[in-house]
Design a protein that fits this description.
The structure holds two protein chains of two kinds. Chain A is 34% helix and 10% strand. Chain A is an alpha/beta fold. Chain A has three domains: 84 residues, no CATH class; 231 residues, 3-Layer(aba) Sandwich (Aspartate Aminotransferase, domain 2), CATH 3.40.640; 113 residues, Aspartate Aminotransferase, domain 1. In chain A, helix 9 links the parallel strand 4 and strand 5. The relative contact order of chain A is 0.13. Chain B is an alpha/beta fold. In chain B, the strands form four sheets. A seven-stranded mixed sheet of chain B has the order 2-8-7-6-5-3-4, with helices on both faces. Chain B has a four-stranded antiparallel sheet with strand order 11-12-15-14, covered by helices on one side. In chain B, strand 11 and strand 12 form a beta hairpin. The longest helix of chain B is centred in the C-terminal third of the chain and has 38 residues. Chain B starts with 17 loop residues before the first helix and ends in a 10-residue tail after the last helix. The chains are: A alpha/beta, B alpha/beta.
Chain lengths: 520, 474
């Protein structure tokens, strides 16, 4: 037997490609995917067909034009589509910076798949929901310790919804003090998530955006200039998308407080800070943690998720309700009161994700959480030092260490070779790796944002680094390889010109059929 | 045999191996990990270990959580008649198989290349819901029905340039709170009365309230109180005559038998996908959809992702991507349409699987079974002395049970039901004080005839019980 030589630097990968039709093309009249429970004979004899009572003008004339497909075919179709999806379980997903794509413990996924969670109705009597309420309450206690704040709500079901809730609380707070009209501005920074600005606008605020100084820190002199009696709030991430921690954060929050504003902290990603530093000591009145980022709940193609919202004592009366309380013997759902913003999402949030994160916190404990942060920061700085050695790559702003992530730039490579960061996005697919650029606008030119978390080994990081090195080599030697990528992914370059043309875009299969009917 | 001392490297953190850390620190050029945190001032650094319960191994964790979850008693162990926005339905096994796939569970924001399957699944979900509602555009789902309604109303406001919306007085009070918070301060709302006992919208009150600043008339079918609103076209006509849009919230599980709102004048349709294959999950199964016609003025007002189909450079290959991405806050921060972010994509995929499994006739049978069983339950309850069905219009899935004639409160009756393993419907006495002691009961295809009869017998006993209990929160 000859020894099989395995010395390639990058993975010899090809993604699954099933060439699946669109589900409607699987239609075969007469097939069916599942049987629906029928009414018992006695019921039918008593009430008849049930539908005759629908007023004629409200009866559906023709059944919906859904496809008829046998069960195995439906299963096979979606399993194939799943194989054409590169979940974080399958790749070294450090390329989705800011999103903390960490290992999703399988035990947590197993534990939520029980009728003891799945079959709970959110309005059922609390006597039959003591287990899940205990989970909510105990995760609240842990979050209080992690943040230093005083009460958490798990109702917001994403970071964006948590930001909306916080902007709502800012408004309700100032309204309650008769300053709602006067305070109409919210200050944020350009390296923060777009939803910070977008949700504040929904709540009627004018947005003031701070840009970084030469070293990449939010500019405190700029803050001093824009702060005023109109300031309602200040929202920021720290570190921001650059991974640069603003050491003067307490001065920022002090300035905003002196002006009468509320400081709220985007801790969607707090992965480098667990057990290291907290919202409270930095002077924040509110913060939120994305359970689907730092707290190891999966991203599920983009939700459902949870943005756990914490507040200081003075803002508890403004929280969305109900909140979970414990009287020493049992857990209960309590309404918040007249100052509450009401609700931001139906019921209590995404309970199964609250359980996942509670389980994750329990599996790590205080020392484990600190190890998470430390290792995430170690991994990031290792990656950072290695990537700066790749030709054409750089990391703008301050030269010191970063925390959990870095926003890099291919500006030099783009200038020298014409290969852009978007080209790199597509080429990374050929190595079975995901890669993301940046939020918009691109303040850092030709950006890419990497966050290795604590989940990956040194060898995993090296695999990612080698792929970027390979692409840089290709860009400088044979840029067409990168520009024409992907060639080993599920599909080839998409002709995307229709997506912005109302006459051409097709958002559903029926629209596609109408818009592509061959002309006579 | 070589043995190893008890592991100190956590299974989730491979780089805790001391030798590896040393190697990496040397590469970086620092002595200790703590040095990487130099930039954080000592004054705000934690100088102690957090006070948290001790770490558990996987085995210990499972034992602990199992014990804790034993305190829950779900609809599998009781007979459940709660609906009110979260409904108990039959869930085909294939739905769970697909939404538990590791690929879908752990995917997030990949490109349409390596995540082509995610894009195609969501495009197909959009396409399948489009057939159900008979509209050409459907969004990647948002948080829940309340959010879908809130955004639909803001879309209507942007399209019409007006700032007031009319909502039905039958609306779920929780949903109203969510809408009220979301549309404030730019928009305001008024409630339009409903006719008691028919349950239909009061058209005279609607005409009195609709005006030159009305952006949208929003109503639901079925209403929150379960009745079928048969005046959909008239309501849409009144809205349109005033220059407002007709926005209709709908329970998609009704659309196999009920006419889709697009066929009675709706401009925007919204609703919850939870009935289409999602377990209740204590409210974690909600997902909101929005649908419109394929007109630029509507499409450009969606805040959501909209996935479209497109060719690739290879003949015969389907590709997918974001339609009109420039609308979104991802592209333009505060000048995008509202905001977008993580919402409920996995439930969108699941709803697609569900609709593909049921097909046109499955949806029809579902609607029919629900109507038969809920009508049967209502007739059994109406036969009990002192118990009535409050609203007279035909209902779908939910109906208002009136206990005013029993001399007992809903709370008292439900307390007794609970002791018999029955979870009664939603108590309406606080949210709808005008109805007195009424409750909203939900009956779907999952309820067996025997369970409905058990309910009727238990309510009969509770109503005639001489014991007037002091009901405490349990």
């Amino acid at each position: 037997m000859k020894r099989i030589v395995r010395n390639h630097k990058v993975r010899n990968f090809h993604q699954a490609k099933w060439d699946e039709p669109i589900i409607f093309e699987l239609h075969k009249p007469g097939e069916r995917g599942v049987e629906i429970p029928q009414a018992e004979a006695a019921i039918e004899s008593m009430v008849g067909d049930g539908i005759s009572r629908i007023p004629d003008k409200m009866k559906r004339d023709t059944p919906p034009a859904l496809p008829e497909i046998g069960q195995a075919k439906v299963l096979r179709h979606y399993l194939r589509l799943s194989q054409e999806t590169l979940g974080s379980d399958f790749n070294v997903e450090i390329g989705q910076g800011t999103c903390t794509m960490k290992y999703i413990p399988r035990i947590n996924e197993m534990m939520i798949r029980t009728p003891k969670i799945m079959d709970l109705h959110p309005l059922q009597d609390v006597s039959n929901a003591q287990g899940i309420l205990e989970v909510f309450y105990k995760l609240d206690l842990a979050m209080r310790e992690i943040s230093g704040l005083d009460k958490f709500s798990f109702q917001p079901s994403s970071g964006t919804q948590a930001l909306l809730a916080m902007a709502s609380i800012v408004r309700a707070y100032h309204d309650s003090r008769g300053e709602g009209e006067q305070r109409n501005e919210i200050i944020t920074t350009i390296f923060s998530h777009p939803s910070q600005a977008a949700t504040a606008v929904v709540k009627g605020y004018k947005i003031i955006t701070l840009y970084p100084d030469a070293d990449g820190f939010p500019d405190i002199e700029e803050l001093k200039k824009v702060i005023s009696p109109r300031t309602a709030g200040f929202v920021v991430a720290n570190p921001e998308d650059t991974g640069i921690y603003n050491p003067r954060i307490k001065e920022f929050t002090d300035l905003v407080h002196e002006a009468g504003g509320i400081c709220y902290y985007d801790q969607a990603n707090a992965n480098g800070l667990l057990g290291v530093t907290r919202a409270k000591e930095a002077g924040f009145d509110m913060c939120f943690f994305n359970l689907h980022k730092t707290f190891a709940a999966p991203h599920m193609c983009g939700g459902p998720a949870t943005g756990a919202l914490g507040v200081v004592d003075a803002l508890i009366p403004f929280l969305p309700g109900p909140i979970v309380e414990y009287d020493g013997t049992s857990y209960d759902l309590k309404e918040v009161g007249d100052l509450s913003i009401g609700k931001v999402r139906s019921f209590h949030g995404v309970a199964q994700t609250v359980l996942r994160s509670y389980a994750w916190v329990r599996s790590l404990g205080a020392e484990g959480l600190r190890q998470v942060a430390h290792t995430a920061v170690l991994n990031n700085n290792y990656l950072y030092h290695k990537i700066l050695k790749i030709r054409g790559a750089s990391a703008p702003y301050v030269k010191g260490n970063r925390l959990e992530q870095v926003r890099y730039s291919w500006e030099q490579m783009a200038e020298e070779t014409g290969v852009t960061t978007e080209d790199v996005t597509r080429r990374m697919c050929d190595f079975g790796l995901h890669y993301w650029t940046s939020h918009h606008p691109y303040v850092v030119p030709q950006p890419f944002t990497l966050e290795p978390t604590e989940s990956y080994s040194k060898e995993d990081l090296d695999e990612y680094i080698n792929a970027l090195q390979q692409i840089s080599d290709e860009a400088y030697s044979n840029p067409e390889i990168v520009k024409n990528a992907p060639t080993r992914s599920t599909v080839h370059r998409i002709e995307d010109s229709s997506f912005d043309d109302p006459k051409e875009w097709c958002i559903t299969w029926r629209a596609y059929l109408k818009k592509t009917t061959p002309s006579e | 045999m070589e043995t190893r001392r008890k592991a100190s490297v956590h299974p989730y953190i491979p780089n805790m191996i001391p030798e590896v850390q040393r190697q990496m620190l040397d590469e970086i050029g620092v002595q200790r990990i703590e040095d990487l945190y130099d930039i954080i001032p000592d004054a705000i650094k934690m100088d102690r270990l957090m006070d948290l319960p001790p770490a558990l191994s996987e085995f210990e964790l499972k034992r602990e959580i199992d014990k804790l979850l034993q305190k829950n008693k779900g609809a599998n162990e009781t007979i459940n008649f709660l609906g009110a926005g979260c409904w108990q339905h039959f869930i085909p096994a294939v739905c769970d198989e697909i939404n538990q796939r590791s690929e879908f569970v752990t995917a997030y924001a990949g490109e349409p290349y390596e995540d082509k399957g995610r894009f195609q699944s969501l495009f197909e979900y959009q396409s399948l819901v489009a057939e159900l509602v008979d509209m050409d555009v459907v969004n990647v789902p948002t948080f829940d029905w309340a959010q879908a309604a809130s955004t639909s109303l803001r879309m209507a406001s942007r399209i019409t340039g007006r700032t007031e919306v009319l909502l039905p007085a039958t609306i779920d009070r929780d949903k109203l709170m969510i809408i009220a918070n979301y549309i404030t301060p730019q928009l305001s709302y008024q409630l339009v009365d409903f006719n008691d006992p028919s349950g239909e919208l009061d058209l005279e009150d609607l005409k009195a309230k609709v005006g030159a600043n009305t952006a949208a008339v929003y109503f639901e079918n079925p209403t929150f109180l379960g009745t079928i609103e048969s005046q959909g076209q008239q309501i849409a006509d009144i809205a349109h005559a005033a220059g407002a849009l007709s926005v209709v919230g709908v329970d998609p599980s009704s659309l196999g038998v009920l006419k889709p709102p697009s066929q009675y004048g709706a401009d925007i349709i919204c609703g919850d996908l939870q009935p289409l294959g999602m377990h209740m999950n204590y409210g974690g199964g909600q997902a909101g959809f929005i649908a419109t016609r394929d007109e630029e003025k509507f499409v450009m007002e969606y805040p959501s992702r909209l996935f479209g189909i497109a060719p690739t450079i290879v003949e015969g290959e389907y590709g997918f991507g974001d339609v009109a991405y420039e609308r979104t806050s991802f592209a333009h921060r505060e000048t995008g349409k509202e905001s977008v972010g993580t919402q409920t994509a996995l439930w969108g995929i699941t709803a697609g699987v569900y609709l593909a499994l049921l097909g046109p006739y499955g949806m029809q049978e579902l609607g029919q079974t629900i109507m038969q069983k809920s009508q049967y339950a209502a007739e059994l309850l109406a036969a009990i002395d002192g118990v009535e069905i409050r609203l007279q219009s035909t209902f779908f899935k939910e109906f208002v049970v009136d206990f005013n004639g029993t001399g007992k409160t809903v709370r008292e009756i439900h307390h007794q039901l609970l002791a018999e393993g029955i979870q009664g419907g939603k108590d309406l006495s606080e949210d709808f004080p005008g109805l007195g002691q009424c409750a909203l009961y939900c009956v779907t295809e999952v309820h067996a005839q025997e369970e409905l009869e058990t309910l009727a017998a238990a309510i009969q006993r509770a109503c005639t019980s001489q014991v007037k209990e002091e009901v405490q929160s349990l």
